[in-house]
Amino acid sequence: MARAKAGPAKAGLVKPVAAPPRVLTDADIVAAVEALRARDAKMARAIEVVGPCTLQPRQEGTHFDHLARAIVYQQLSGLAAATIYGRFMAQCGDGSPPSPRAILAHEEPTLRACGLSGAKVAAIRDLALHVLDGRLPLDTIETMDDESIIESLIPVRGVGRWTAQMFLMFRLWRPDVLPVLDLGVRKGAQRIYNMRALPDSARLEKVARTWHPWATVASWYCWRVLDAENAGGW
Q1: Angle CA(104)–CA(152)–CA(66) in degrees, nearest 5?
Q2: How far is residue 105's CA from residue 41's CA, in Å, rounded to a whole number?
Q3: At how many degrees (to 10) do helices 78-93 and 63-73 cross?
Q4: CA-CA distance, 226 to 120, in Å (whole number)?
Q5: In which residue ranges of the chain is pLDDT below 50?
Q6: pLDDT score of 228
Q7: What predicted TM-score, i.e. pTM, was given to this entire model?
Q8: Fewer Cβ close by (within 10 Å): the C or N end of the chain?
Q9: CA dihedral of residues 122, 123, 124, 127 (deg, nearest 10)
Q10: pLDDT of the residue at 1
Q11: Residue 77, exposed/middle/buried by CB under 10 A (0-12, 13-18, 19+)?
Q12: Residue 21's pLDDT is what?
């Protein structure tokens, strides 16, 4: 008699737990630099010019603080943004980064008086609402993969894919983020690879094939190479 095919797994069996998403460590950064240097001669030259990777996560405060601050700082100089953010904390958080509930307890004119534009007030309030009603699960977001995090963030008003990718890179310390819309990364890649024109997203993705699984570190070198005194020496 033919043996019956195996049926579905029996109830009660424990399902395998997915591995947690990888985050960068100091050892990973060293390994990333060596891997990029070995597989890409032009990136190796950039690494030589820039020097060791000093990329560091932004660990202060909560995930909510980080995102609210990112919204405040959008399209502003550092000094102007810091001044407005200081007023925002003083008004809503008694000098500390305010909670979602504290922000929603203040009316729009009060927030505007801190120097925030109407669009930024709407964005920060929308961020607070997404957190409080559970649409943006910041308490468990570290367990999610990169693309799921992006999909959770971009419905928030004022938070696009670029902001979500910066959150992945600098807050969650994810190793393989390629911000193809970032002007600095595009300009850095143009210089490193001696391109006549600024690369668009498709061109940058093609160039970056050798960067994976360390695109975060490679992107950092693209930013930093623009600051190097002899950055035009390719």
Answers
A1: 55
A2: 55
A3: 130
A4: 30
A5: 1-6, 8-11, 15, 231-234
A6: 82
A7: 0.86
A8: N
A9: 120
A10: 47
A11: exposed
A12: 87
What is the distance between the alpha carbons of residues 213 and 22, in angstroms, rounded to a whole number?
11
CA nearest 177: which of 144, 218, 148? Answer: 218
How many Cα atoms are found within 13 Å in the side-chain-facing hemisphere of 214?
Answer: 26
Paired tokens of 195:
């391109």
Q: Which numeric CATH code is attached to 26-54+177-225?
A: 1.10.1670.40
Q: Write out the residue limits of the CATH 1.10.1670.40 domain(s) in the chain.
A: 26-54+177-225
| Residue ranges of the chain assigned to CATH 1.10.340.30 | 63-170
Q: Which CATH superfamily is domain 63-170 in?
A: Hypothetical protein; domain 2 (1.10.340.30)
Task: Say how many C-beta atoms besides its own lie within 10 A of residue 74's C-beta.
Answer: 16
What's residue 9's pLDDT? 47
Q: Contacts from 112-120 at CB under 8 Å and sequence distance 24+?
A: 113/87, 114/84, 114/87, 114/88, 115/83, 115/84, 115/87, 115/88, 116/72, 116/84, 116/88, 119/158, 120/71, 120/72, 120/74, 120/158
